[in-house]
């Protein structure tokens, strides 16, 4: 089970060396709940990632405003850790809040912006855009 985003941020701030952060990122990826086999499909695949990445968006309409929940997976360990950070950051937010959330700011704060390869950074941005597009679609339909 993924820790809350505040705990992830605290843990990243505690780790001084990029090597330790790198290992923690991979550990987060291992904590992702499994994505069902049938969810590894083209509709859930995130385009713009060199690695294979799948994000499945679920909408909870039981409250006053729809809330988003995510499942995700990747075939690469570090990328799977990036998926985990993004899910911890966005999961449970209202659609409106998720559409406005500053995930790039989070990545800068965690030091991921300067330590991920250009390809992984582009993939992370593609994941953020996918989540934002899903959130905007849900918010517009509400």
Automatic annotation (TrEMBL):
InterPro entries: Fe-S_metab-assoc_dom
Domain Fe-S metabolism associated: 10-133
Pfam families linked: SufE (PF02657)
Family to which the UniProt record says this protein belongs: Belongs to the SufE family.
Protein name stated in the entry: Sulfur acceptor protein CsdE
Annotated organism of origin: Methylobacterium crusticola
């Amino acid at each position: 089970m993924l820790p809350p985003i505040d705990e992830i941020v605290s843990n990243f701030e505690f780790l001084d060396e990029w090597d330790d952060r790198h290992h923690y990122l991979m550990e987060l990826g291992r904590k992702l709940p499994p994505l069902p086999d049938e969810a590894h499909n083209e509709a859930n695949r995130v385009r713009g990632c060199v690695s294979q990445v799948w994000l499945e968006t679920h909408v909870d309409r039981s409250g006053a405003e729809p809330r988003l929940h995510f499942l995700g997976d990747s075939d690469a360990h570090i990328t799977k850790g990036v998926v985990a950070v993004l899910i911890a950051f966005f999961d449970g937010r209202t659609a409106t809040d998720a559409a406005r959330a500053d995930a790039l700011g989070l990545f800068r704060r965690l030091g991921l912006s300067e330590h991920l390869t250009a390809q992984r950074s582009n993939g992370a941005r593609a994941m953020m855009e996918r989540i934002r597009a899903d959130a905007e679609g849900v918010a517009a339909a509400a």
